[in-house]
Amino acid sequence: MTRLEVYQRGLLDLVKRRGAPPEDEYLRRVADSDALATVREIAIWWRVFALEAQCRFTSRLLKRLGRFDEMVAWYFNHHLTSPFVEELSDDFLGSLSPHNDALIRATSQFERAFLKVRAGSAQTFEVLWDRHPDLVFVALENGSDLPPAETECVYRLRIDRNLPGMVACLRERIP
Amino acid sequence: MAGADTTFHPCPRPALAVTYEGDDRALLERIVPLVDTIEISPDAIATSDGRRASLRPEVLDEYAAVSPQIKFIAHGVGLSIGSFDHWDEGYLRLLDELFARFELGWHSEHLACTVVAGENTGTMFPMPRTEEALDLICERVRRIQERYPVPFLLEHVIHLLPDAPAEFTPAGFLNAITSRTGCGLVLDAYNLECDVFNQGLDIGAFLGELDLGAVRELHLAGGVKHNGLHLDIHSNTTRDTTLSLALEIVRRAPGLRAVTFEFLKEAVLLLGHDAICAELARIRQAIQ
Lengths: 175, 288
What we know:
By secondary structure, chain A is mainly alpha-helical. Chain A has helices at residues 3-15, 25-31, 35-54, 56-64, 68-78, 85-96, 102-118, 133-142, and strands at residues 125-129, 153-159, 167-173. Chain A contains eight helices and three strands; from the N terminus they run H-H-H-H-H-H-H-E-H-E-E. Chain A is elongated, with a radius of gyration of 20 Å. In chain B, the strands form four sheets. Chain B has an eight-stranded parallel β-barrel, surrounded by five helices. In chain B, strands 3-4 form a two-stranded antiparallel ribbon. Chain B starts with 14 loop residues before the first strand and ends with a helix. The interface between A and B is large, with 37 and 41 residues.
């Protein structure tokens, strides 16, 4: 490995908080520097700006839950991040799709599907919600309280470019 | 080879340039009468469908609409000319697309690394000032010069992290690149101020040692102070100290062709159109 490769790989590992503490003297100096935290912060800021602009509902929900910055930082540290906002958003939302919080899961799945369809995808997507999605969107738009989960029914939201407004929702009783 | 023309051409004043990243026709209409040149960042106007990136046609149309009144130059972010393994070919495809559509006076890129082993760093790593890095950069500059018919410039980036062990001074490293390749330089007055503040750069010694004949473009911007560090986030108008430093460079750089005010698209809401226009008028008056 050349010195340049050692430095660049080492700096990337430090910025992404991964790998063992560096053995290289210069990289140890970087690891011990106060500026490293600022460089990490800046790298995450750019992702925050992009995701706020592109993933409007999911970023608002995560902020409402007090988890946005933490989730973006986690995503940045553990994923290859694209410089293109469309790819970054798609991958970020995809990383949230299996989330164990049902509301984060549904919102991110919906937003990912909606962005794909709006960009021209001919695929049909379906997202299950444990509460009325419209009420969630309204709450995220105007800052009102999020609706509680409903125990007797689910909402099946279809996203398809051939639907009026690209979405349709069916309320189904849980047997 | 398209190197920088570093001979002195008596010129009444450098052109005034500004960044513009599209989607704000009202701003475009206001800035066009105030400037000579628009600096296009291919990365900032690109979109990707997951397979291939391309320039957004609607933004290209905005530029085309003002092309009778304005000249264009390009300034990239994502080439990653300093990556140990390879640069980003995707950026060059964007640049090809831009060259196919517009006549560009020159194009430039940051002297930095933004991709490591295919992974985006999320920030810019400055190059260590070593012979190894110099060889790699010069080889790539030559390839770029062969590929495009206009001058290619490199811009120094700010240093937030401690400097890697170096075999050259900051100015000596830039001089070695320009003398070996004939490429030109973009000096960024705000980046230099950041390095003075954050790293103790001796600006007098730097400018004294630098071959200022290679400087074709000068960047001006304003940023923020955060955690005790000055950051080169183009979110503000230019401070008086930055403008003073810029004017010193204008006086001393005989090949300077353009002074560019840079601001991020995200900063437009914060700054407002009036402040951006006032800033352009202020810079224009200062550099005359």
